[in-house]
């Protein structure tokens, strides 16, 4: 079973949680330790990516360290064609649909495609939609962020993604955002599409994670909280509240 099929299979039993690790935020060994702790807490996959300062060497080392210490899929979440690794289990082949810059919509993808094909890496086509405030992902991605009150715009992009053949839609408030994507927007997008919906950015508590899952997120992503919380207890509570929905 490939990674996408595994995710669909796991989704049929409940909602999923994914842990985002930025290779630029800690040494590879530390990423491996955090991933092992997250896997023990029940996370369904480790996403590897960051907006700045990420090199292929750092991604390779981080992926290898995570694979050595955690038995969950590793999925690349790249900011550019320079952030790939042949060692990952899969790659979000993502397009930032609401970017003002064609480079982030299809330019980096054009550069990456021949390498990805040669490696035989599994690709999961994903629409990446930046919602206000967007944080660094919005800046680096030159996004025209979807206003928090404009669920209709999010629905339009998400449906377009599905009709283009994409397999996931990611609503991103931005790493470290003061609030997650609004529940009303999550619910409207979930009701409009048939493919799984990923939601991340600004989710720091079990209550917030539960609210995002109840609104309709199939996959809830946390990054910052995992890198900061040393005890693992916060993450366990977040994952439990996602799985309880
Ligand atoms: C960022 O959605 C992810 O791409 C995670 O955000 O760091 O705020 O959890 P946080």
What does this structure look like?
The chain is α/β, with parallel strands linked by helices. It has a single domain, classed as TIM Barrel (Alpha-Beta Barrel). The chain is 44% helix and 17% strand. The protein has 10 helices and 8 strands. The chain has helices at 3-11, 28-40, 56-69, 102-119, 135-140, 151-163, 183-192, 206-215, 224-228, 233-243; strands spanning 16-21, 45-48, 74-76, 90-96, 122-130, 168-172, 197-200, 219-222. An 8-stranded parallel beta barrel has the order 1-2-3-4-5-6-7-8, surrounded by 8 helices. α6 (151-163) packs parallel to α7. The protein is globular. It starts with a helix and ends with a helix. The structure holds SN-glycerol-1-phosphate. The site of SN-glycerol-1-phosphate has 15 residues, from β8 and α9.
């Amino acid at each position: 079973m490939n990674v996408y099929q595994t995710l669909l299979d796991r989704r049929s039993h409940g909602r999923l949680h994914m842990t985002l690790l930025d290779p630029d935020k800690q040494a590879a060994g530390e990423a491996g330790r955090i991933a092992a702790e997250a896997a023990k807490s029940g996370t369904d996959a480790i996403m590897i990516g960051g907006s700045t300062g990420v090199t292929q060497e750092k991604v390779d080392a981080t992926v290898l360290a995570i694979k050595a210490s955690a038995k969950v899929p590793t999925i690349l979440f790249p900011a550019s064609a320079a952030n790939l690794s042949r060692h990952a289990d899969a790659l979000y082949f993502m397009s930032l649909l609401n970017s003002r810059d064609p480079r982030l919509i299809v330019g980096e993808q054009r550069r990456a495609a021949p390498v990805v094909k040669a490696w035989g890496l599994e690709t999961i086509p994903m629409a990446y939609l930046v919602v206000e405030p967007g944080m660094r992902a919005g800046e680096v991605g030159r996004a025209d962020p979807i206003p928090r009150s404009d669920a209709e715009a999010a629905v339009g992009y998400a449906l377009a993604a599905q009709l283009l053949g994409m397999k996931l839609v990611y609503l991103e408030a931005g790493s470290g955002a003061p609030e997650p994507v609004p529940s009303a927007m999550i619910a409207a997008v979930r009701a409009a599409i048939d493919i799984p919906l990923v939601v991340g950015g600004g989710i720091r508590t079990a209550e917030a994670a539960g609210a995002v899952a109840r609104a309709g997120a199939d996959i809830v992503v946390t990054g910052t909280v995992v890198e900061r919380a040393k005890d693992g207890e916060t993450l366990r509570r977040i994952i439990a509240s996602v799985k309880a929905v």
